[in-house]
């Protein structure tokens, strides 16, 4: 659902109609000035997901990460959040989620801020997400490496951790 917001700005035109009624006011719709495109290239988000079993960390194969981004439309107005999923982690727990600008251009959206979250674990013995490195609250995408060959900003988050108990684990263990 798009939210259309109009801003009323009083404008003085003096005596434009030739009468003596004084100042006229006109309603003007103004678009916000949105010039900064935070994510102007293709983006990739990478990281590793572990299962914490006792005191051991085991690389978790098959886990999925959810990326949720705030976006604005072509006029600079906020849109509904944009969400996409990573491919399942490989045998070493590595994931890569990619988003190509052509996908956003078709919807006329510009990303402002993105966060990565633990989404799903394939393991019945290790399926409770933890907030270690903000796996539950959302790890913000900050610095990146630019991959020239793919014209992509590659962000790294995590590592993230699932556990076998519902007791939350934060960065303090």
Automatic annotation (TrEMBL):
Pfam families referenced in this protein's UniProt entry, alphabetically: Pollen_Ole_e_1
Signal peptide: 1-18
Top-rank taxon: Eukaryota
A GO CC term attached to the entry: cell periphery
Keywords assigned by UniProt, alphabetized: Signal
Listed name of the protein: Pollen Ole e 1 allergen and extensin family protein
